[in-house]
Amino acid sequence: MIKDKDDKNLNGENVFNGDEEFFFGLLNDMVTFVGVLNPDGTVIFVNNTPLELAGMTLGDVKGKKFYDTYWWAYSDEAREKIREDVTRCASGKRLVHEIQAQIADGSLIWIEFNMYPVYDDTGNLKYIMTEGRDITERKLGKEQILRQSAVIDAVNRLYLETLVCESKEDVARACLAVAEDLTRSKFGLIGEVNQAGRFDVTAMSDPGWDACKMPKTDAVMLLKDMEIRGIWGQVIKKEQSQIVNDPASYPDRVGTPEDHPQITCFLGVPLKEAGKTIGMIGLANKEPVYEQADQQAIEDLSIARRLRIWIICRRIWLLQIWRAAFSLPVLLRLRSLVSNSKT
C-alpha cells in the first residue's frame, strides 16, 4: 500500500499495488493534469489531458526530467521553478502554487500546480505526484480587472500632471513617464513625423539618457530629422502597433548607433490624428517581455495624450487671443475711447 509520510492513504486503499498500468488507465480519464515521477524527477507517466494540450504523446516525455519537458520550455525561470519543486518535494514538502505552462501553439495557460511525495510501506519515497488544474479563465479575468484599473490610474495621473503643461513637449514628457511606469519599461521615447517625412524625437526618458554612453550633444543631434527605418520605423510605416521581443532576429533590424543602450525588447504604438499616423510612442526593455496587454494599455494612453494636447493647444490659443486683446496698444485705445465718452 502506498502512503504518505504520516501513514495516510493517498487516493484510497491499495493505490497502484503492483498494477500500475490499471491505475494509469484510470488517471488518463481525468480532466486535470496528472503526472507520476521518480524521486529524481524522471517522468514515469503523464495523463492524456496535458499531453493533448501540448500536442505530445507519453513517449515524448517518458524518461525525461519533468523540468526539461515542453510545458516549461518557454523560460529558464519556469524550468528552474519546477526543478526546485522536485527537490523540495523529494525532501518531503507538499507544494501548491500557480504557474504558466506552454501548450501546442506556443501560448501559455495558467495552472494551479500541486506536487506531493508518495511513500511505500517502509517509509521510503516511491513517487512524486503532480497535479494541475487549468485556471486560465479565472486568472485572466482577475488580471484584466487589474490592468483596466492600472490604465485608469495612468490616465488620471496623466491628466493631473498635464494641468501645468504649457506645450506639446511637456505633455510628451509626462505621457512617456506614465507609459514607462505602466509597462515597467526601462526607457522610451515619443516623437512625431516632421514636414519632410522624417522623425523628430519630442521626449526621451531620463533613464534612456543615463543608459546612453555617447555625449548628450551628439545624441540630441541624432534624435532630430531621423530617417524612418528599422524596427521602430515599421510602427509608422505600417501604421500599427508592434511588439518585438527578439530584436536580434527581426528582419527589419538595422542595429543601433555605437554606445547606444542595448535593446532587448521593444513596444511601439503609433500616435494618430484624424486617422493618420503622426508619430510614435516607443518603449524598450521590459522584463521579461512585452505582452498584448502592454500594447492595449499604451494604445489607450495614446488616446488620452491626444486629448490633452488638444486641450492644451486650445488653452494656449485662448491665452494668445486674450494677450492680443489686452495688449498695450489695445489698452491705450480703450482708455482713449473711455476718455472721449466722458467729454
What keyword list fits this structure?
alpha+beta; Beta-Lactamase; 2 domains; five-stranded antiparallel sheet; 11 helices; 43% helix; 21% strand; disordered N terminus
Description:
With 343 residues, the chain is of the alpha+beta class. The chain has two domains: 20-134, Beta-Lactamase, CATH 3.30.450.20; 150-325, Beta-Lactamase (2-Layer Sandwich), CATH 3.30.450.40. The chain is 43% helix and 21% strand. It is built from eleven helices and ten strands. The chain has helices spanning 20-28, 48-54, 58-61, 76-90, 136-161, 168-183, 206-211, 216-222, 230-237, 292-325, 328-342, and strands spanning 33-37, 43-46, 95-102, 108-119, 125-134, 187-193, 199-204, 242-244, 266-273, 276-284. The strands form two sheets. It has a five-stranded antiparallel beta sheet, with helices on both faces. Helix 5 runs antiparallel to helix 6. The longest helix is centred in the C-terminal third of the chain and has 34 residues, at 292-325. The radius of gyration is 30 Å and the shape is elongated. It starts with 19 loop residues before the first helix and ends with a helix.
